[in-house]
Amino acid sequence: MSQRTVLITGCTPGGIGYELAQEYAAKGLRVFATARRTEALGELTSLHIPCMEPIELDVTKIQSIKAARDHVASLTGGKLDILVNNAGQSYSVPATDVDIEEVQAMFDINIFGVMRMVQEFTPLLIASGDGRIVNIGSIAGVMPYPFGSAYNASKAALHSYGNTLRLELAPFNIQVLTIITGGVKSNISSHRSRLIKPSSLYAPIAEIFAQRRAGRSQVGAMSTKAYAQSVVAQTLKHRVKAWFWIGSFSLPCWIIDTFFGRRGFDWLFSWRFALHHLKNLLRLEKKQM
Fold first, then answer.
1. Which domain holds residue 279?
2. How many CB atoms sit inside 10 A of residue 2's CB?
3. What distance in Å separates the CA atoms of residue 261 and residue 264, rounded to the nearest whole number?
4. How many domains does the chain have?
């Protein structure tokens, strides 16, 4: 039996992709670890793992994707067993304060990049006879996490995309799995941390936001190694789940979303991020006018 292959986007050190690459290699797969800049893959390369090959790949550029596809095809006889769409970007800003250009750039990575990858790599996945597409989603796409509306929306779009993709590709023996990721130790939040501007509607609670929102997902977060072990084990099963919930707070999130309805999170997050406090401040201000 030929060695199974996997391509993973977003494998820079400190992130989920970096750990996934090592775990797949440990399971005996041939790993194509990608990042926008090959120098970002230097740490993985220094591990000297025989079955791992770094590839420069920018999911926002179709020519870069096509070049990576052709390179992989030339090495595997035109096949790929697993595609892991992990590359992503966060953005934490109140909905009324977002920079649309920055939001568009984030969507270009988080959702349009996935769509490009799927289009270009599906023929290789079909050729494998048992292809898998693994989309790294987030509980942020399920729950209304304050000041993350744009990022939450990108992940919700990814979940919906994966649901339909699962049906469309089933006739071609391709299974689609969406990972609903809870808190995992990662560097994704460090790239797009924001503070509330003095001109914002939420300026009165800016200090609370800075304390509670920045890096909140890292508090009590699951280790990337444990996360990678669980995710890889799930993706290698004969039949994979449609959604796989993993990471800190993923179970409570599933329970609230499943049994408490659309407003199940409202009180929790309103209290956590002092939105109820802001409401009281505005009411008091109105009385004093």
1. 5-288
2. 10
3. 5
4. 1
For residue 112, what are the contacts with CB-CB under 8 A and spacing of at least 6? 60
State pTM to two decimals.
Answer: 0.93
Inter-residue contact 137 to 155 (CB < 8 Å)? yes
179 near 247, Cβ under 8 Å?
Answer: no
155 is catalytic: yes
Q: What confidence tens digit (pLDDT) does each residue in 64-84 have? A: 999 999 999 999 999 999 999
> Helices 224-235 and 16-26, interaxial angle, to 10°?
50
In the chain the first and final C-alpha atoms are separated, in Å, by 78
CA angle 18, 20, 24 (to 5 degrees): 125
Distance CA 96, CA 147 (A): 9
Q: Which of 18, 79, 91, 155 is catalytic?
A: 155
Q: Give residue 195's pLDDT band: very low, low, confident or very high (50, 70, 90).
A: confident
Distance CA 15, CA 186 (A): 5
Separation between Cα atoms, residue 153 and residue 107, nearest integer Å: 9
pLDDT of residue 38: 80
Task: Please state, in angstroms and rounded to a whole number, the distance separating the CA atoms of residues 61 and 181.
Answer: 26
Tokens 């997902």 identify what position? 217
Cα 33 from chain centroid (whole Å): 16
User: Which one from 145, 151, 161, 227 is the annotated catalytic residue?
Assistant: 151
- Contact criterion met (CB below 8 Å) for 245 and 253: yes
Place of tokens 């390179």: 71
Q: What is the CATH number of the domain that holds 283?
A: 3.40.50.720
